[in-house]
What does this fold into?
Amino acid sequence: MNNKYELIYEGKAKKVFSHDDADKVIIEFKDDATAFNALKKAKFEGKGKLNCLISSKIFEILEENNIPTHFLEIKNENTMIAKKINVIPLEIVLRNIAYGSLCKQTTIETGTVLTKPLIDFYLKNDELNDPLITKDRIELMKILSSRELDFLIKLTLKINEIMKSFFKNIQLQLVDFKLEFGYDSKKNILLGDEISPDNCRLWDLSQKNDTIISLDKDRFRNDLGGLIEAYSEIYKRINNSSNLMK
Ligand code: TMP
It folds into this structure.
């Protein structure tokens, strides 16, 4: 990145730089992958570019469906320009199918199709290991009011409906995903972060048998191999579908 831009924040998978316009930022997607709060680390050449391209397509689709997001435009392959937001320190996870931590922490069987989407909140705090928290604790910590939380829950459910049907059309099952939100300078709540196979579980529906084929970061979390091939396949399907719509 051109050094006229100041590095404002570096996360596990992205760097955020200043922009000439104080209301905007430049987000660079890194090739680094981490899991289990960075206990496991690796680098996958090309991951940053794929996640930047996939995220921008999904943000565009969400915007077309009246979901306010921070995305403005792609700058180059692994960087995007976004509205500057003050990030709410919560990770909102929506699950359509029981998998991952839900099955490790409860007696719900892996692969159970949930009768209604389950929304879990995690406190964004690496030192505390991003703990699962309750609505009451969120209000107690004054992170959000009850009204704001209800608004975010409704928005998350709406995002799920849009993404679930979009992915289904390209033969992908949206199992679960994680969202982050923030406030812009006018105090509007916008969807931030990224929407990519790093923070969504996506299963291939194009196979006729019942075996689960993960096309997401579980390939790294569970040592399945083929992460770049999986992310490339997601990007290819998204791109083909948007070319068809043109
Ligand atoms: P989990 O089953 O590990 O709780 O993950 C649920 C979803 O949230 C899955 O799509 C991966 C995503 N996720 C993140 O994006 N970041 C995280 O730090 C964690 C724990 C999960």
Q: What stands out?
A: Residues 7-83 form a domain with the Phosphorylase Kinase; domain 1 fold (CATH 3.30.200.20). The CA atoms of residues 157 and 232 lie 27 Å apart.
